[in-house]
Write a structure and sequence with these properties.
- With 149 residues, the protein is mostly helical.
- The protein folds into two domains: 8-65; 76-139, no CATH class.
- The chain has five helices and no strands.
- It has helices spanning 8-27, 43-65, 76-92, 98-110, 118-139.
- The chain crosses the membrane at residues 43-61, 82-112, 118-137.
- Keywords: Membrane, Transmembrane, Transmembrane helix.
- Residues 12-143 form the DUF1468 domain.
- This is DUF1468 domain-containing protein.
- InterPro entries: DUF1468 (IPR009936).
Length: 149
């Protein structure tokens, strides 16, 4: 008799998504959903919850059907790099402005990967910073300074 083994990471992730979707559906049960043409306050939360439920069922089903897959060891460099980049952005956005905060966050996040190339990171950082300024300052007219001066 063979013992059935599961892909525990996928199964646990699927169960988590199902639980979040179920919690959202229960929490929004009293809200009016409305229709696609006349959306009520419960329309989008329920739509997102149903999408989460579908993904949860997919991952749970895959976890039950697929054999065990090893879990890779945790790598601290990417986790810390992205966390520090978000923190630096949050600290710089008010005093240094959107452009410098965005560019600094991109440089720090790129340092989290060993595959980053200096020239590509600089070009990408400048492009994303310009896009952020155009989107948030020009298109959305958010009251955020671009530069520290």
């Amino acid at each position: 008799m063979t013992r059935r083994r599961f892909d525990w990471p996928d199964l646990a992730f699927g169960a988590f998504l199902i639980a979040v979707a179920a919690g959202t559906l229960v929490a929004t049960r009293g809200l009016n959903g409305g229709t696609a043409a006349d959306m009520g306050p419960g329309y989008m939360p329920r739509a997102i919850a149903l999408i989460l439920l579908a993904f949860g069922l997919f991952f749970a089903g895959r976890g039950l059907l697929r054999g065990p897959v090893g879990i890779e060891p945790v790598q601290l460099r990417p986790i810390l790099g992205v966390g520090v980049a978000v923190g630096v952005f949050a600290l710089l956005i008010e005093n240094a402005g959107l452009a410098l905060a965005s560019f600094a966050a991109i440089l720090i996040a790129a340092a989290a990967s060993r595959e980053s190339r200096f020239f590509e990171v600089i070009v990408f950082g400048l492009a994303v910073t310009a896009g952020a300024v155009l989107l948030f300052i020009k298109a959305l007219a958010l009251p955020v300074s671009i530069w520290p001066w």
